[in-house]
Amino acid sequence: MELRNMTLASLSVDGRGSYGIAASAVDRSDELYTYLRITDIRDDGTLNMADLKSVDDEKASQYLLKPNDIVFARTGASTGRNYFYDGTDGEFVYAGFLIKFSIDPVKVNPQFIKYYCMSDAYKGWVHSYNTGSTRGNINARTLGGMVIPVPPRQQQDGMVSILSALDAKIKNNIEINENLQVQTQALYKAWFVDFEPFGGV
To answer: Which helix (H) or strand (E) element contains residue 68?
Structure first.
């Protein structure tokens, strides 16, 4: 496989990373933008929707994520944790402890970058910047200089096609499991708390 070593910055639209808005989170409101924080991003790159907050700031709209953006946690134990935005999770304004790169779809398949940033090679690169301290810290310039081995476009597309199909199946299974858990809890409550009659007898 022929690989080209490209930096993350060189694969972005504007050649640089951007820091999020420095604003406090407020209680979730349909009148305000949803605020994406480090704590909302899981280690596997998915979102924890359980405790989302909003942001109330006049400049918030300037920090809205757009499809093919990827944000990285830049400090703390979560340094390097990342989330690729494709628009399906709703609108988000990204917080100040996140760094955004807008991936250029002409230069690379954006989802290839998503999957690279879930790889052991990427995690090893992040770990190399945690020099004995439990509190990591990576800035936009460092992230932008990260070298990514990029295969030809056809191979990128093939890899993304397979991995995204597996992702879709995993997501579907998670939703099925969550639904089953809800049903199970409802039955426990009905039978062991409310002592409703069991219809199966």
So the answer is: none
